[in-house]
Amino acid sequence: MKIVIIVPDGVGVRNYLYSNFIDYLIENNHEIIIYNKLSKSAIEEIKRIKPQLKNFEVLSNFVENGKARLLRESLAYGRLLRNRKTLKNYSILKFWNPSKKGIKKSTLYSLAEILGFVFSKSSFLINKADFFYEKEISKSEATKINLNKLKTLSPDFVLNLHQRATIASQVISAAKKLKIKTGTVIFSWDNVPKARLISRYDYYYVWSHLMKEELSLLYPEIASKQIKITGTPQFEFYFNKELYLEKELFFKTYGLDINRKTICYSGNDSSSPYEANYLEDICEEVSKIDDEKRPQILFRRCPVDKSSRFDNVLKKYKGLIYSIDPDWKTDKENDDSFTTIFPKYNDIILLVNTVKYSDLVINLGSTMAHDFAVLDKPCLYLNYNPVNNSLFKVEDVFNFQHFKSLKNLDAVGWINNKDEIIKKIVETLDKPEEMGKERKLWLKRIVSHPLQNNTEELCKAILRK
C-alpha cells in the first residue's frame, strides 16, 4: 500500500514521524511519501531519526481566494453558534477571537459573523456552505498541481496529520477528484468543538469513545462507521525505556538538586497571557517553605513561546527555578507558530525525563496533566485569576467543553487562590497518591487504552480502509 502523509506542522513530526507509527507501516512493507511544508533542517532531523523515510514532497504554496476564506470563517462562526446550542456551553464562542485590525480583516470577520449567523440556522445551510467551500478549493491552481502530482504518485491513501491546516485542503481536494481514499487524525483532545475541521474525509481517527461521540454529535453528516477509535501515538514515548536517562545525569546536566523534590511548571502559549504571573506566584510561595523541605521548580515553557516574558522571574528566583527549554528549532526564532517550528528528537528525551523525574506538575489546564498521568504523577491546576479586572478569566478556561470530561472524577488538585499554593504543594508531595487519585480514570476517558497499542491500532485502521 502506498500512503501519502501530509505533515503541515511540527507537532505532526513529534507525534507521528518520531513515534513507532512510521516504523510499523514501513516494516509491514508499505510505501510512505511525506507531503510537507517543513524546513530543510527539519527534514534532515527526520531523516536522521528515521533513515528509512526516503520520499519527501514539498506542499505547494497555497492561499485561499477571498471567497473561500470568507466561507471558511463563516462556517467556523456558524458551527460555533450551533455547537454552543447543542452542547449548552456558552464558552464555545470564546474560540471565536479573530484579530480585526485593519479594514480588510474587519470587513472579512464582520461579514463572516453575518453569514455564519445565517448558516447556523440549519444543518442544511452548513452543509451547503461546506460544499461551496470545497468547490472553491477544487478550482485553485494548487489543487491542479496536486492533481498532477497524485496522478504520478498514484497513492492508495492520503492521511492528514492536522485537521485544521488549510494548506492540506489542496491535497485532499485533489485526492477526492482522483477517488483516492482520505483520512485525518484529530490533533488534540480539545479540538472537535472548535469548529475547525477544514475538509471532509472518508475516515476520521479519534482518541477515544468520548471524542467519537463528540464528533458524531457536532458533525452529524459524518457517519459513525467513518469514525475510528485508535488513540494517539503521542503518549507511547513514556514506555520506551531507551529514552530514560539516569536521574543523576539528568539533574546534573540542568543544575538540579537530586536530594530535593521537584515541581514541574509547564507553560501555555501566548494565548494565556498571565503565565509569568502564575510562575512568580508559585516561586514566591515556594521560597517561603523551610529550606530543608523546599522543593525546586523545573520550568518547561510551551515550545512556541519564544517570548521574554519569563526572564525577570527566572532571574529573580535563580537557584529555586531551573528552566529546561524545549528543544524545538526554527529558521525564524521569533515566529510564534507551530507551522514553522519543529522538535528535535532530543526534546522527546527532555520531555520524558522531565515527567519521569518530577514529582508533580502545575499548570493552567494543560494537556501535560495527561502526560504526567501516564506515569501516575499528580497534577495541580491553577484555578484563580492572578491579575484583577482582566478580560482573560480562569473561569472561562475550565468551562471549555473538554474539561467536562472531568465530571465526577477526582483527577487533579485545584489551587483556588494564591494562599493555597504552599498547602496544596506540600499535601501533594507528602501524599501524591491522594491528590487527584482518579487521574488514570480521566486519562482512560480521554485516550484509548492500552496506550502502548495506539500506534498499532491507528496503522491497522488505516490499512483496513
How would you describe what is shown here?
- 41% of the residues lie in helices and 13% in strands.
- With 465 residues, the protein is α/β, with parallel strands linked by helices.
- The chain folds into three domains: 2-61 and 140-232 and 451-463, Glycogen Phosphorylase B (Rossmann fold); 66-130, no CATH class; 238-446, Glycogen Phosphorylase B (Rossmann fold).
- It has a seven-stranded parallel beta sheet with strand order 3-2-1-4-5-6-7, sandwiched between helices. Strands 10-9-8-13-14-15 form a six-stranded parallel beta sheet, sandwiched between helices.
- α2 (20-27) packs across α18 (454-463), α4 runs antiparallel to α6 (123-138) and α14 (368-374) crosses α17 (439-446).
- The longest helix has 22 residues, at 66-87.
- The protein is globular and about 70 Å long.
- The chain starts with a strand and ends with a helix.
- 44% of the residues are buried.
List the helices and strands and how they pair.
Blueprint: E1 2-7, H1 10-17, H2 20-27, E2 31-36, H3 40-49, E3 55-58, H4 66-87, H5 103-119, H6 123-138, H7 141-153, E4 157-160, H8 169-177, E5 181-185, E6 203-206, H9 209-218, E7 227-229, H10 247-253, E8 262-266, H11 275-286, E9 296-300, H12 311-316, E10 321-323, E11 328-329, E12 342-343, H13 345-357, E13 360-363, H14 368-374, E14 379-382, H15 394-399, E15 413-415, H16 421-430, H17 439-446, H18 454-463
Parallel strand pairs: 1-2, 1-4, 2-3, 4-5, 5-6, 6-7, 8-9, 8-13, 9-10, 13-14, 14-15
Antiparallel strand pairs: 11-12
